[in-house]
Amino acid sequence: MPFSAQCISHFTARAEKGIDINQPVVDEFAPLYWVRKNQVPITLITGDRELEMVGRYEENAYLARMLKIVGHSQTKLLELDGYDHGMTYPAFPILIREIERWNK
User: Fold this and answer.
1) What's the sign of the alpha-carbon dihedral 15, 17, 13, 48?
2) Hey, which end of the chain has fewer CB within 10 Å, N or C?
3) Would the CA dihedral through 88, 23, 49, 58 be positive or negative?
């Protein structure tokens, strides 16, 4: 259950390859590259799309959509309205509830 996951290749991996920070890349270092149908529950949590890091909500929304397209049946995307990238306080109680729900 990632908090504000960077779903394209991480900016550090892009920098190490000499790729501009504003050039989105989906390679083996990107969670989007590994989209598969499986039975592992995935809950993606981001801050408010207007307050979050640029593009972060959209990356997570795209990952959630692609997982659903390939048949992943346990995908959830949550956007925490009014919170920015540092939305850990409202996200941690959600994390605990999701883990408890998965373990039933």
Assistant:
1) positive
2) C
3) negative
